[in-house]
Design a protein that fits this description.
There is one protein chain. With about 130 residues, the chain is mainly alpha-helical. It is built from 4 helices and 2 strands, in the order E-H-H-E-H-H. It starts with about 25 loop residues before the first strand and ends with a helix.
């Protein structure tokens, strides 16, 4: 008898590699990473810091769902989710710091007056 024609010992038949389904990366994990990178890019441009804050919040929410989905059997993506969460949190913090800095600068009357003088000087040079 050959090995393939012998009866299986131990009960259940052995599964071949072709029979196994590969683990799937969680969609929420992928979206968390996409939102995290987008949020960080928006925040670092400084002009779109407000969009970075919004994308960072969305990335954190999706990342939490991604961590929950990664616990399911046959689903991977825990590392991708943690990366997305990390980038989203960094973008959120940087965006809030930037917005707070701009608000503080604009509420400083002396700084606002100096900025207005510079704008007036530039207008006079152009005219």
């Amino acid at each position: 008898m050959t090995a393939s024609s012998e009866p299986m010992r131990g009960g259940a038949p052995a599964r071949s590699r072709a029979d196994r389904t590969p683990a799937k990366t969680s969609t929420a994990a992928t979206f968390a990473l996409v939102f995290g990178v987008s949020a960080l890019v928006c925040t670092l441009t400084a002009i779109l810091a407000w969009a970075g804050i919004i994308l960072g919040i969305i990335g954190i929410i999706v990342g939490v769902f991604g961590l929950q989905m990664a616990k399911r059997p046959g689903v991977t993506g825990r590392g991708v989710t943690i990366g997305g969460l990390t980038l989203s949190i960094i973008a959120l913090i940087l965006g809030l710091v930037f917005i707070a800095g701009v608000a503080t600068f604009l509420n400083n009357q002396g700084a606002a007056d100096r900025l207005q003088e510079q704008v007036d000087d530039l207008r006079n040079r152009v005219s």
